[in-house]
Amino acid sequence: MGNPKIAVVTDSTAYLPPQVRERFGIPVIPLHLIWGEEVLKDGVDIDPTAFYQRLQTAPTLPTTSQPSTGEFVDFFRSVAEEKDTETIIGFFISSDLSGTVASAEAAKNLLGDLNITVVDSRSTSMGLGFQAMAAAEVVQAGGTVEEALQAAESVRYRLHVLFVVDTLEFLHRGGRIGGAKRFLGTALKIKPILELENGRIESLEQVRTKKKAVARLVQIAQERKGDGAVPRAAVVHANAAEECRRLQERVEEALGPEEVYMTEVSPVIGTHTGPGTLGVAFYTAP
């Protein structure tokens, strides 16, 4: 007998492209968007297009929250049933950005009959997605839990997540601004280049225009890549598909990734970054 089945799961902030979800069969638990009296499930009750349309005219900004412990209990149980397994590895948004990991841990403690491993990805968006993909790939090839965790950790160590926001207003309002605080006092025209560094949002540089900021973003990615090969890269956007397509071409040229994906920022993350955000996530080969 080969290894018992292992299910790899993640949360909605990874916003995995549909082809990835199909290829690896990764179940996703949604985070919540709280808009006035409404509680919407991220990517289920509201997709990015509807979200940004509503954001333009909404009198109040939404807030976000993690799935409850009870929701995680239901989620883990349904995954175990659907995948016919007792073994689950969950990769979730950085615990510095959300309480999702804590909810997952609490649910795990209530589910003694299941063998659940909860991983704090120290990332989000495709930085989280790539870790789940690396683990799922190992599992598909018949690997063990340990091997899957090792593969994901190896990706985490070599991961770069860089992004440009149109304005710091949303990060500031959502309290997720981290090390980018020092940019707040500067002229509003400044386009900050930020990165996810060990689970937190840190500031790298500030550039005068969006066009220059995007060019600099690609340049930094290229510097980070060095002479290494790039197995996977992703470009992500918040309501800026056209700009993102152009960014993808530049990323392909600069990094020469074996695989490249374009995806949107989930509404929960979009609440904090605001529309117009562009990002690139990639990791180098060991």
Index terms:
alpha/beta; globular; Hypothetical Protein Tm841, Chain: A,domain 3; six-stranded mixed beta sheet; about 25% strand; Rossmann fold; 13 strands; about 290 residues
Secondary-structure element order, as H and E?
EHEEEHEHEHEHHEHEEHEHEHE
Structural class: alpha/beta
Q: Average pLDDT, to the nearest integer?
A: 91
Going by CATH, the architecture of the largest domain would be 2-Layer Sandwich
Principal-axis shape equals globular
In CATH terms, what is the fold-level topology of the largest domain? Hypothetical Protein Tm841, Chain: A,domain 3
Put the structure in a nutshell.
By secondary structure, the chain is of the alpha/beta class. It has helices at residues 18-24, 48-57, 69-82, 100-110, 125-140, 145-157, 169-173, 210-225, 241-255, 267-273, and strands at 6-11, 28-29, 32-35, 38-41, 63-65, 87-92, 115-120, 159-164, 191-197, 200-207, 232-237, 259-264, 278-283.
